[in-house]
Request: fold
Amino acid sequence: MKELDQLLMQTIADRKLQPAEKKALLDWMNAKSPTDAGRALARSRAFEAARAVIFNEDALSVIDWLEDVIRVLSRPAEPIQVTGPNSGRPISKAFFAPGDACPREIIRLISQARTQIDICVFTITDDRISDSIIQAHRRGVKVRIITDDEKASDLGSDVDRFETEQIPLRIDRTPAHMHHKYAIFDTQTLLTGSYNWTRAAARDNQENMITTTDGDLLREFTRHFEQLWLNLEK
Reply:
């Protein structure tokens, strides 16, 4: 949002939204805020920018600027594009436990992520996975984690390690469980299934996990993550 705020303040300087500025807003929105929740937050930032100068001179021109910005920020999201040799066709794979197939794939996706990892998992106790999450955070990948409150205090939970590393974290504190097990990598790959990110799941449990680049599923899970993240804000 800091990047968006800077862009908005640049565009509001002359009280007009120029064509090049419209393109810059669209490019930012499609790259950084493709979800409905993200777009709503972007629109609220535009109102904040207008509010900051609305009581200064020439208030009517600020309203004109704001109307143009809201039109841009209300445009539907562009479809998520799948890149690589199989562009245009979703790529899906299945993995099963017991065994190391699931944690190996999770670690591979985390290690290959370059910009963003959103994790929504009931419990995380497998140090191999936690180590790779921390390494991704340290190399500059934007990591966000949602997990369950009861499992966060379990013996072996790595939530304390994530907090120590200052990884953004949201914990569900309702009487019911936050029982999801999914993650989104660079807005391009979705991972979901029954598999908890624990040593026991890899060693003993009958579990399943899939990964997919399907754009429709990515949009739905991304929208859900953003809504849950905002709902659990401290």
Observations:
- The mean pLDDT is 84.
- The two ends are 18 Å apart (CA to CA).
- The first strand starts at residue 92 and ends at 97.
- DSSP finds ten helices and seven strands in the chain.
